[in-house]
Amino acid sequence: MSVPRSGSTMIEGRVLHTTSTAPKITFRSGPGDPLATAVHNAASRKHRITYADKSVIWVESEATDPTVITRGDGTAIGTVLRADTSTAVASTGGTLCHFIPHPDTPRTPDLFRLLLLDRSGNKIGRLEIIRTPAGWAMGYHGEHARDTTLWWDRTGPPLPVPILGTRLVMNRPIDRVERDVLLAACVDMAIGLQPYVAVMK
User: Domain count of the chain?
Assistant: First the structure.
């Protein structure tokens, strides 16, 4: 994945939906080919993320159980403990990040805003869950990622789904495990419709 020159990381995921297929989310970290795509697998009742290099991540999510994230070969990556706030935990047991509502405007008609905190409670990024076409043009100020060029002005058409996509902005580059878990969380919320903070319920 590309890393902006500022040292930050931005990944945008857009949900696509047709009457003949299940919703699909396409992730991009810049112009060019997608970073990954994700779809719901009805047979396994899981979501499948496929990266450009063909590696696969499975996201298993039930209403009352933690979200479980594994590689295509079954190797555990981590889990997300969902409640009024949520916590991502690596398979090794270490906390990867906390998902909390934005303290000022956690919810608008156009998007949900979440902050991402490290294990010590320091802000490391933010995640926006887009609810309307206008949400794509809102909320981005570029304070940590001004050197990137994505598509903040392209609102796109409305879709027959309650979530149109996700916008992840991290204050720093992220490693493979962090990327896998954060994209899994985006899929869990955008396609799986799982609430990660109380304001989303």
Answer: 1
The full 3-state SS of 110-126, as one line of letters, equals CEEEEEEECCCCCEEEE
Among positive and negative, which fits the CA dihedral 105, 106, 108, 111? positive
Q: In this structure, which amino acid lies at residue 82?
A: R
Whole-angstrom Cα Rg for the chain: 15
Full 3-state SS string of 77-97:
EEEEECCCCEEEEECCCCEEE
| HSE, side-chain direction, 13 A CA sphere, residue 201 | 9
Within a domain: residue 126? yes
The answer to whether residue 109 is domain-embedded is yes
Q: What angle do CA 120, 123, 197 make, to 5 degrees?
A: 90
Residue 1 included in any domain = no
What does the DSSP 8-state code read for residue 76?
Answer: E
The answer to whether 88 touches 95, Cβ cutoff 8 Å, is yes
pLDDT digits (tens, 9 = 90+) for 92-113: 999 999 999 999 999 999 999 9
Query: Domain range spanning residue 45?
Result: 9-200
Give the integer Cα–Cα distance in Å for 102 and 140.
Answer: 14
105 within a domain of the structure (yes/no):
yes
Lowest average pLDDT, out of 15-29, 43-57, 104-118, 181-195, goes to 15-29
